């Protein structure tokens, strides 16, 4: 029983650690980068809307929305960085950050152009200046999202495997313990019976003398 208890404890430790990793890393990572993806796509749409309008009031409103989304993205990036625990995740995140910097630089250039030109010219600047850096940024985001999804799936599979292994070996241990218990009980019964037979035989011999 003690051995089974020790084994169960030892097997539960990696299960607990993997579950904690899912809670603190994989799941928050998927959720946060889902928000980052939504933020980036919304920003892209707003920039395109800005390129197609010549209304100064609407341009100002769109710029405010873009800036608000950028501030929200900053917070999401700070929160995500707290969930990074391995080199692959760090490398992918650094690529996202680098491409975001390039995208923001291109966007600033595009917005400056759009303020001073008509919709046709602004659309051309959007395609020429902003579209490719934004596409590269989204690709980097997709790579990080894919990593987090794979990480969550792998850790989930690990927990399932560890639990099934623990269940199997605990079952085997219980069966062995049962067999040992039966063997010990049989040995005790046999030894007791042997002693009793010897005692009865001795008593019978004493009675005949």
General description of the model:
It is a single chain. By secondary structure, this protein is an all-alpha fold. Helix content is 94%, strand content 0%. It has four helices and no strands. It has helices at 2-51, 56-81, 87-116, 119-208. α1 (2-51) runs antiparallel to α2 (56-81), α1 (2-51) runs antiparallel to α4 (119-208) and α2 (56-81) packs antiparallel against α3 (87-116). The longest helix is centred in the last third of the chain and has 90 residues, at 119-208. The chain starts with a helix and ends with a helix. The model is unreliable at 4-9 and 18-25 (pLDDT under 50).
Give the topology, please:
Blueprint lengths: L1 H50 L4 H26 L5 H30 L2 H90 L1
Summed up:
With 209 residues, this protein is mainly alpha-helical.
Distance between termini? 51 Å
Quote the average pLDDT.
77
User: Low-confidence runs (pLDDT<50, min 5 residues)?
Assistant: 4-9, 18-25
Largest sheet: none
Give the proportion of residues in helices: over 70%
Structural class: mainly alpha
Order of helices and strands: HHHH
Which term fits the overall shape? rod-shaped
Spatial extent as radius of gyration? 35 Å
The total of beta strands comes to 0
- Strand residue percentage: under 5%
Total number of helical segments? 4
């Amino acid at each position: 029983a003690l051995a089974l208890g020790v084994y169960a404890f030892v097997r539960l430790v990696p299960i607990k650690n993997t579950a904690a990793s899912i809670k603190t890393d994989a799941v928050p990572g998927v959720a946060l980068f889902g928000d980052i993806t939504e933020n980036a796509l919304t920003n892209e749409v707003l920039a395109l809307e800005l390129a197609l309008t010549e209304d100064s009031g609407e341009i100002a409103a769109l710029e405010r929305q873009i800036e608000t989304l950028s501030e929200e993205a900053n917070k999401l990036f700070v929160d995500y960085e707290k969930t990074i625990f391995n080199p692959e995740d760090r490398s992918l995140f650094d690529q996202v950050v680098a491409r975001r910097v390039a995208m923001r630089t291109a966007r600033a250039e595009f917005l400056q152009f759009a303020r001073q030109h008509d919709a046709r010219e602004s659309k051309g600047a959007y395609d020429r200046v902003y579209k490719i850096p934004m596409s590269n940024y989204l690709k980097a985001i997709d790579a990080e999202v894919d990593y987090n999804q794979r990480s969550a799936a792998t850790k989930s599979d690990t927990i399932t495997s560890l639990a099934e292994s623990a269940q199997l070996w605990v079952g085997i241990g219980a069966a062995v313990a049962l067999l040992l218990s039966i063997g010990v009980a049989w040995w005790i019964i046999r030894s007791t019976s042997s002693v009793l037979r010897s005692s009865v035989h001795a008593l019978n011999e004493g009675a005949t003398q």
